[in-house]
Amino acid sequence: MLFALPIAWLTIALGTSHPARQPSSAIITVTDAGTLNPLTNADVTDLQSGQHRFTDELGHARLPWPSDGRLRLRVREIGYEPVQRTLERSVASDQSPTFMLSKVAYVISSVKSTSHCATTADSASLALSVAVLEQLKQGAEKYNDFRRLYPFEATVERRTARIPEIGEVKKIIGETQKLRSDSWERPYSPGNIVEYNRDGSFWAPILFMSTLADSVFWENHCFVARGVESYQGLRAIRLAFSPNSQVHGPDWEGSAVLDSATSYLLRVDFQLVNLDRHRDLTRLDGYQTFTSASPFVIIPDSTIVIWWTRKPDAEQGWGKPDFVQSVHVDSLKYRRAKPPDQHAHD
Fold this sequence. Notes:
Layout: H1 4-15, E1 25-32, E2 43-46, E3 52-54, E4 60-64, E5 70-76, E6 83-88, E7 98-101, E8 109-110, E9 127-128, H2 130-149, E10 152-162, E11 172-180, E12 195-196, E13 202-203, H3 215-219, E14 221-231, E15 234-243, E16 251-259, E17 265-273, E18 283-294, E19 297-308, E20 323-334
Parallel strand pairs: 1-7
Antiparallel strand pairs: 1-4, 2-3, 2-5, 5-6, 8-9, 10-11, 10-20, 12-13, 14-15, 15-16, 16-17, 17-18, 18-19, 19-20
């Protein structure tokens, strides 16, 4: 009888023990397959729910387990081949599942022809680099996601000059603007880039980087890789784009230049085509360069635009433009959390 109470207490304690609780979220690790170094700002997306996260400086991202206990993940990073995998909560181990990404290889291959790119010069049936198309769009999509995750206010310096037909420029108008990352770019509308007012004035935007992530833009343009070239000492690939046969109004034509080693977008050259020459705006050309605000995230840096309101001369052609404008992003001020530091990864 002296040992009955301790034995009974031990039996009760064992009977009321609980199994270990499963974690409420999964921690994903993303690394470079070659170096095994962590990849910062990799985009980890649950394809079922659409929720996504950026990895931190350690290459980690945390996603909550859905009710069915399955995460159907796609992991992407600029310059790497995307990876998809399904994780099961019931078989998840204590260790963080690792996604090892391999560097993208720019292999020229044939892609399916698009129905509205019929001419040989701009047809998507030409040998294109599928990887270039994917990397360009991925970089633009990451820029949009970056703006949502790390909203910022940009200090922008704008300088505009009217160019006389004869003589030197007499005045340059300079101004500084504060623009919010969620409102400084306008949505793309095919064949409707220029807005004309009743008083004869017009409004024409630049080709925004977010436009390159717009599926409507891709559906209304033809793309062809122009091959490898040198750009400021870097080995780069140029991808040309032009409106397809269904676009009749003012729209964008140009090319994007990507660093072949990193897939970073370096420059976009653009011009408006299908302009109504009976209107005041008769020609607009420009280019935009980019910088890295955080590892693997590219944002606009500087833009130069020139445009004409007079018609070309029959003998001398276009001549000097009527206006020149430069726009430079001087600084960024993050309104909430700051992104991982670019310099820490240099």
